[in-house]
Amino acid sequence: MNTAFRIRLRTTWLLGIVTLVLPMAAAGQESPAIPKLPDGPLLKPAPDFSQWVITFSYPADKTKKIDSSAPSSFAYLNAYPRSVVTTRTGAMTREVSTDLIGRVSEKWYLGSLEYRKIPVDPIWYQNENDSEARGGNINFTPLPSSGFRGFDGVSAQAYTGTVHYQDRDCLVFIPDGKGAAPVTSADQLAGMDNILLVDATSRLPVEARAKGVVRVFAFMAPPSQKLVLEDDLVAQIKAGNEGRARLNQRPPRPY
């Protein structure tokens, strides 16, 4: 056997080994399976008659100090909410917020109008969703179409799996987390601070985490009757309508 033939034979044998080894190595390095998107809507809107409470927690909420003696009635803007109770009946929605030191503020949504009462102030402030204003109305805090703030990140691209969490199966979403590793166990949630959890059965919010703030949702029995505006708000709206009507009246002729 000449030298050239032996070299060709040895080269062919080595190439054969490489050809066998490469597929085997590739097979052992499987990429994480992409979770199958569940059927149906990923997030359902709040039912027409529904009520839920959101409880807030913060990384340093036990040591957070808020000056409750500030003279300005707008001092509540420096506080953080501890809970928000939302009641929805048809086109009318009420939010009652309690901050970390127990002060209560209230919002009513009537179509494109928002009425807000802040602590230590008896007046209701009216804001309107003025989309034509430059930059919009910064005082208006609209409700999303779903009724749930902070859940705009729920999408097919953000879905990363379903896990059993808090005695229920939850859909897990990572906003802006396209290509994130699948979440297959509730243990993985412990180190995640930017996620949205949706009940896999009801498709209603369970929990939201963002920038260290955790919001936990709990749904209560739906109201049996429609919401009724509070007396002082009704009186204020009536007085405002009467005042505008007088301004729109033509002055009497001098003769």
Brief rundown of the structure:
This protein is an alpha+beta fold.
Question: How would you characterize the overall build of this protein?
Answer:
With 255 residues, the protein is of the alpha+beta class. The protein is 17% helix and 29% strand. The chain has a domain at 49-222: outer membrane lipoprotein receptor (LolB), chain A, CATH 2.50.20. It has helices spanning 3-27, 231-248; strands at residues 49-57, 81-89, 92-99, 104-110, 113-117, 125-128, 159-165, 168-173, 195-199, 205-210, 213-220.
Write the layout of secondary structure elements.
Elements: H1 3-27, E1 49-57, E2 81-89, E3 92-99, E4 104-110, E5 113-117, E6 125-128, E7 159-165, E8 168-173, E9 195-199, E10 205-210, E11 213-220, H2 231-248
Antiparallel strand pairs: 1-2, 1-11, 2-3, 3-4, 4-5, 5-6, 7-8, 8-9, 9-10, 10-11
